Amino acid sequence: MADLFPTFTMEPAPQPDDVPVIELVGARKTYRTGSIEFEALRGIDLRIEQGEYVAVMGPSGSGKSTLMNIIGCLDTLTEGEYRLAGEDIEQLDEVDLAQIRNQRIGFVFQQFHLLPSLSSQRNVELPLMYREVPVAVRRDRAVAALQRVGLGDRTANRPGELSGGQQQRVAVARALVGEPALLLADEPTGNLDSASTDEVLGLLDELHAQGRTIVLITHELEVAQHARRIVWVRDGLIQSDEVIDR
Amino acid sequence: MSWLETLRTGWSAVRSHGLRSALTVLGILIGIAAVILTVGLGLGTQKDVSAQISSLGSNLLIVTPGSSTGTDGVRGGFGSAATLTRSDAEALGSTTNAPDVGAVAPEKTTSLSLEANDTNWTTSVTGTTPDWLDVRSRTLETGSFLTDADDTDRSKVVVLGSETATELFGTTRVVGQSITINDDDYQVIGVLAAQGASGSDDLDDVALVPLSTASEELVGGFSRNSVSTIYVQAASTDQLSAANQEVTNLLLNLHGITDADSADFTVSSQDALVSTATAVYRTLTVLLTGIAGLSLLVGGIGVMNIMLVSVTERTREIGLRKALGAPPWAIRRQFLVEASVLGLAGGVIGAALGILAAHVLPGLLDTSIVVSGAAVAGSVVVAVGIGLVFGVYPATRAARLTPIDALRSE
Fold it and tell me: Do A102 and B12 touch (CB under 8 A)?
């Protein structure tokens, strides 16, 4: 597939092989509402290597959303260490975190979060806009990313003109366009019918086969079983961490 | 994200809520147009007033009786305010006494009824000397003006203003006709060309007779030698202040006054009159512009209101942009640009409307409106500034949103 777009490789940015993509050590997160404290994460150790396809599962209130926010650099730990592709996240301020998100992480959300007034191509360009990539390069990369997810003929359409599955594929293209170290998908199929679910999960399988590191947060076992490793979270702790044999 | 792109994003955000943006722009627009119009009206009135004062003549000093400098109540010599005399005027006309004075025209004005055939017309009858025509920068429409011989002979001749002639005879071709003043017949020897400008009607409603005739035949009595005003024309513009000095010193001398503060006359220059009059209008302009500025402030609050709505509405968009790596300053800049686009649109349209009104209104209201480039440029800048200032708070609020909360909002 990558041969079709020789100008812009859609492979992950090269990294030293021995650095894990995610390394959490004794991660704790405490929320404070007035005098009430709530421990969402109570000491999590997690290591995810390059090229892994990991599903994080758990019932609601288990802390998996908090874990996702931490992994996605949308929130910071109260205690513990987090290194993303070798970079120590705990030392960074808001502006640096924004840059890390922009360069290292590709998000796929349950609600797609596409901007309704922009064409799919312009939506896909968004991460590059905050990276000062020249307009022409940006456009070419966005088109390539859309072709990669099979929507090369929908570049000019707005999200409202696309099906749910297509919208989520645009979102995946947006996550890929910046060539991040990590693809972070939060319930990517939560708003999709079964046909679209298969479509999106198939796409993730393909990306994994090409060597992408993917973390999938879900509460559906059926979805999680596409991953090669399932991490169960309960009450802010990792309950089990198993590799699925195929 | 480049400035151009930020601008384009701002513009499309403004356009995507057409009506809402239009109403917000309207608030700014009205304020800007009002400021341009009030400033223009103020400048126009100042111009009108100085034009009217200039129409009295050029390089003029106006000497009037009585003192306006005393702080201890009414001042004045014998005959209360009638302190200027014909001989004062003659002394001022002498080139040895006052070399910088070009010409002098005393006026002795009294209100009288003129009769012609079976109509009558009450107007100000002014006794003066032949130099009046030059000093007051007037011209004759027909006939001739008063001569020195008329003055010496106390001739019963009269030069009418165009309006006076029309009121009495229905025409200005009245040279050779006769009118009656105080039961004496006066021959009309000339008619003044109309001064034209509206608002200066009185300049065309006059009857001029030789000064001696006015003194002896029309006024007589105790105040026969006094004059009501002496118009002094400096020989040139450069000599105006020298002439002012000479006139003041000479009159102080003639009146035997040593202290200039207790002078029984006032010498005012046209400049002084103009600046007094314009000062009044300037104050008015500042006041009105302040009120117009208030409407700009209200417009600015409108911008702030709509920007707050916009931030709330687009919380999810902000969250997404932040998740994708937009730093807080990029978000702030986006909303600031959006607010300034509103301000700029209001400023430009308001300026255009103000300029249009400035061209249309004078025809309807009979006033001048001067559109000043500085006021137009200034108000557009102010409009953008208002957008910026009132956009700061909403933009900062947007920039401070945390991506998690923003993404979760419904």
Answer: no
ipTM above 0.95? Answer: no
Q: What is the pLDDT of residues B32-74, one digit of tens each?
A: 998 888 888 888 888 888 777 777 777 888 888 875 444 445 5
CB B398 within 8 A of CB B313: no
Q: What is the CATH number of the domain that holds A8?
A: 3.40.50.300
Query: In this structure, is residue A201 part of a structural domain?
Result: yes
Write down the H helix ranges in chain A: 64-71, 94-104, 120-129, 135-148, 164-177, 194-209, 221-224
Hey, is the C-beta of A191 within 8 angstroms of any chain B C-beta? no
Question: What's the structural domain count of chain A?
Answer: 1
- Taking only the tens place, the pLDDT of each residue in A82-113 is 999 888 988 888 899 999 999 999 999 999 99
pTM summary value: 0.70
What are the structure tokens assigned to A121, written together?
């191509």
Tokens of B162: 């165009």
**CB-based contact, A31 to chain B, within 8 Å:** no
| Separation in Å, CA of A99 to nearest CA in chain B | 5
Q: How far apart are the C-alpha atoms of A226 and A140, rounded to whole Å?
A: 31
Q: Hey, are the CB atoms on B404 and A75 less than 8 Å from each other?
A: yes
Q: Which of residues 278-337 of B touch A (CB under 8 A)?
A: 316-317, 319-330
Cross-chain CB nearest to B407 (options A103, A113, A130): A113
Count of pairs with CB atoms under 8 A, one residue in A, one in B: 58
Sequence-ordered list of residues with C-beta below 8 angstroms from that of B178, at least 6 positions apart, any chain = B116, B185, B186, B187, B188
- Nearest C-alpha of chain A: how many angstroms from B327? 5
Q: Assess if residue A87 is contained within a domain.
A: no
Q: What is the pLDDT of residues A178-217, one digit of tens each?
A: 999 899 999 999 889 999 999 999 999 999 999 999 999 9
φ and ψ of A27, to 5 deg: -75, 125
Residue A228 lies in domain: 2-12+51-75+96-243
Does A37 reside within a domain?
no
Neighbours of B137 (CB within 10 A): 15
CA dist B30 and B296 (Å) reads 8
Q: Does A137 touch chain B (CB under 8 A)?
A: no
